[in-house]
């Protein structure tokens, strides 16, 4: 039967129609001058998209990777203010720019943060799955963590709080006093 003669089930799109819709959707994404996808749409504190122009949107985080110390400080500050999704975005940028031998470390930290995000949104199954993945990536760095990251501390936090991460204080990404990194984020106006 020719493609044009095939019946289309009500409520289902033909493959040609679906491809057209994907093309329109893909072309409608926010992009920078080089054509890379960017997120100009505002988000709430838990990272959920809001309508364009919505005044409830929080300050976005940098999309470009930061040096390790800055990425850790900003991610910690965001975690401390309940913005685990934004912390995940900062750590994800670091992961994608990291050297091969550190990629699992940064990806694991990002997954821990997005696991906390799922817990904050009430998605326990998603939280458990992402926390497990994140912790699994971190174990090999516990003996000799780069950049002063407190991998053992993050893993201890995971062991103690994986069942209900939204009810716990966030993990400490770097050792130090629990209140030492509170305060204004250098890259956001909070």
Please tell me about this protein's structure.
There is one protein chain. The protein has 190 residues and is mainly α. The protein has a domain of 100 residues: Hyaluronidase domain-like, CATH 1.10.3450. Helix content is 44%, strand content 0%. The chain is built from six helices and no strands. Helix 2 packs antiparallel against helix 3, helix 3 runs antiparallel to helix 4 and helix 4 runs antiparallel to helix 5. The longest helix is centred in the middle third of the chain and has 18 residues. The radius of gyration is 20 Å and the shape is globular.
Can you lay out the helices and strands and say which pair or pack?
Layout: H1 15-27, H2 68-80, H3 84-97, H4 103-120, H5 124-138, H6 151-161
- Determine the number of helices (DSSP H or I, runs of at least 4 residues): 6
Assess the beta-strand content as a share of residues: under 5%
CATH class of the domain at 68-167: Mainly Alpha
CATH architecture of the domain at 68-167: Orthogonal Bundle
Q: Could you state the order of secondary-structure elements as H and E? A: HHHHHH
The strand count comes to 0
Mean pLDDT over the residues: 82
What is the share of helical residues? 40-55%
**Biggest beta sheet attributes:** none
Termini separation: 61 Å
Structural class designation: mainly alpha
- pLDDT under 50 segments (min length 5)? 6-10, 17-26, 179-190
Question: What's the overall geometry?
Answer: globular
CATH topology of the domain at 68-167: Hyaluronidase domain-like
* Radius of gyration of CA atoms, rounded to a whole number: 20 Å
């Amino acid at each position: 039967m020719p493609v044009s003669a095939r019946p289309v089930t009500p409520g289902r799109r033909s493959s040609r129609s679906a491809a057209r819709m994907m093309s329109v959707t893909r072309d409608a994404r926010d992009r920078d001058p080089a054509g890379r996808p960017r997120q100009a749409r505002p988000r709430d504190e838990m990272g959920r998209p809001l309508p364009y122009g919505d005044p409830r949107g929080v300050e976005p985080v940098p999309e470009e990777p930061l040096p390790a110390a800055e990425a850790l400080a900003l991610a910690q500050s965001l975690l401390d203010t309940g913005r685990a999704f934004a912390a995940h975005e900062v750590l994800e940028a670091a992961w994608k720019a990291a050297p091969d031998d550190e990629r699992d470390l940064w990806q694991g930290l990002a997954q821990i943060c997005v696991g906390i995000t799922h817990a904050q949104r009430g998605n326990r199954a998603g939280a458990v799955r992402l926390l497990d993945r994140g912790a699994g990536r971190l174990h090999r760095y516990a003996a000799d963590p780069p950049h002063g990251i407190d991998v053992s501390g993050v893993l201890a936090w995971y062991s103690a709080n994986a069942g209900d991460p939204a009810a716990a204080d966030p993990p400490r990404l770097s050792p130090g006093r629990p209140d030492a990194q509170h305060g204004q984020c250098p890259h956001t106006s909070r």
